[in-house]
Amino acid sequence: MATGVELLNHFLESDNFRVAQVFEILADIALVTVTDVNGNIVYVNEYFTKVTQYTESEMLGKNHRILKSGHHSDGIYQNMWATITSGKVWQGEIKNRAKDGSYYWVNSTIAPIFDEQGVIKNYIAVRFLITESKKIEEKLENNAAELKMAVEKLEEREVEYEKIKKITLSILEDLDAEKRAVEKKVIQRTEQIEAERHKLLQVTENMNDGAILINVNKEIIFANNKIYQILGLRRGDELNFDSIKKHFDIKATEKLFNKCLLNKSSHISEVEVKGRIYEMFSHCLGDGSVAGQLEGCFVLISDVTDVKLLERSKSDLVAVASHQLRTPLTAMRGNVEMLIDESFGQLNTQQQELLDDINVSTKRLIGMVNDMLDITKIERGKLEMVRVSVSITDIIKSIITDLSDYAGNYGVSVSVDLPDQLTVYVDESRTRQVMQNIIDNAIKYNKRPGKIEISSHTSENFVEIIVKDYGLGIPLIEQTKIFSRFYRASNIINSGSSGSGLGLYIVRSIVSQLGGSIFFESEEGVGTTFFVTFPIREILSNKTNVLLEG
After folding, report:
1. Could you give the CA distance from residue 162 to residue 310 in angstroms, rounded to a whole number?
2. How many helices (H) and strands (E) does the chain have?
């Protein structure tokens, strides 16, 4: 079978100079492809690769389906195929998707190519970009729709004004009759409100969660049956805000309500009372941004005992399994390292390579087991910290020294611009774990050759460490998930690098427990900058047995 280039040359030679001129004209203004009779691509021009962002090698042998945007129904493609296979030319507008996920519109002309016997041997497609014109068309359609809506609103207002005029005249003509009609409507509306209230009551009474409405004076104006059951009360027993506080955590309940008064929704993920575990949500009623507009607070209390106990059992199982795995893995690592050091005899090259692979895999497994143990400690709130004043400069320089060979293998240079003695109040080993993870990622996901810049910014109570790389970056659509457990960005997975997706989840948990914060800025293909803050001195905080969010 002829290659795409040979096939194109055949087309050019078939009609001498005129066809060559046509292809030269189309080279910079049209996307040109040639397929075999099965629709598989055998030639694409350079402008096609520029627009679609797929290389020639990525497209040859593939079907145009790779470009489908999902905008059109299957019928349009069926019609297209039926037309060209019958020997006719098909024309139409198609919305396609480029490699990076962006969309573009083309005006397509697809025609069959016949051999000397009149049999179809190929199809040629010439497409012109019409994305901008489609945007203009869409904008014009939107403007027309908005204009139509405006006209309809004006017409509605004219109708409404006419109604008001007739009603006013009717009131003037027969005030007594209108008064009776208004009273009748009030009665009907009152009945509707009562019916809606009854429906709401039925819904809340059948809920598995406790529901409470509290006004701004902390008076309970509504509570369903479930909340009485949770509190161990009967309908008719006294129920007030103080009894809610006494049953649950007093400080947490107050904080929940106070946030509501500030027009902020709140969440207590876990409160344990008399062997039961509850989750609490609050939502403000009304607009707290304007004085006098806040109406109160809606609180939802869910019994999550079974779910939480299951999570704890799962956590216990992971912890036990991780502990059981770490001992043999550590022994394996020690034995492999002794073999690599030729403590038991000289190794040939093949043996050395195999043992190096085993050593790398063993270290990776030990790292994953340690990550799983850290996660179970985080979930149980047992990630112990011993806070002291340490030099973050010394920690970072030590990490860079340890990773120098690793960075060299990746062709990455690291520059450090930190004061000689930059002191923070942290757990030294956990802080080292945080910075090593961030710097390791900056090396691993960098370009080759690449560079990393580490600097700092100091405020009154915090030191901010800034780690900037010029690597793969993180896709914008995935940036909100980057601190989730087991999550790895799609472009990182495609790069072939290894990882469990647990590192940044653990890093954020450690930094939060140390009293600091972490965030990042990233652009795909440009690089990522992480900002990590650590306290300079001890931060006093009120400890509680619940987790507050929001």
Report:
1. 65
2. 17, 18
Q: Give the CATH number of the domain where residue 85 resides.
A: 3.30.450.20
Rounded to an integer, what distance in angstroms lies between the CA atom of residue 19 and that of residue 34? 15
* Spatial separation of the C-alpha atoms in residues 517 and 520, rounded to whole Å: 11
**Number of domains forming the structure of the chain:** 5
Q: What are the C-alpha distances in Å from 484 to residues 77, 96, 480?
A: 40, 32, 9
Q: What is the spatial distance between Cα 40 and Cα 164, in angstroms, rounded to a whole number? A: 68
**Domain with 366 in it: what CATH number?**
1.10.287.130
Q: And the tokens for 299?
A: 């609180």
Q: How far is CA 160 from CA 166, 171, 174, in A?
A: 10, 16, 21
Six token digits for residue 392: 């973050």
529 closest CA partner among 442, 447, 458, 449? 442
Residue 153 in tokens: 């609103």
216 and 197 assigned to the same domain: no
Q: Closest Cα to residue 418, out of 372, 469, 457, 382?
A: 457
DSSP state of 40: B
Exposed, middle or buried: residue 93 (CB in 10 Å: 0-12, 13-18, 19+)? middle
Check whether residue 417 and residue 521 sit in a common domain. yes
Is 325 in the same domain as 395?
no
pLDDT 10s digit of each residue in the chain, 550 long? 444 445 445 554 554 434 455 566 677 788 999 999 999 999 999 899 999 999 999 999 999 889 999 999 999 999 999 999 998 999 999 999 999 999 999 999 999 999 888 899 999 999 999 988 888 888 888 888 888 888 888 888 888 778 887 777 777 677 777 777 777 887 887 777 677 666 666 666 667 787 777 887 778 777 777 778 777 777 777 777 777 777 776 677 777 777 777 777 777 777 777 777 887 877 777 654 444 456 778 887 877 777 666 666 555 545 555 555 556 766 666 777 777 777 777 878 887 778 777 776 776 666 566 656 666 666 656 667 788 999 999 999 999 998 888 888 889 999 999 998 899 999 888 899 899 889 988 998 888 888 999 999 998 889 999 999 998 888 888 888 888 776 677 756 555 555 556 778 888 888 888 889 999 999 988 999 999 999 998 765 433 333 333 3
Residues whose CB is less than 8 angstroms from the CB of residue 230 and which lie 6 or more positions away in sequence, other chains included = 210, 247, 278, 301, 303
Peptide bond preceding 449 in cis form (omega within 30 of 0)? yes
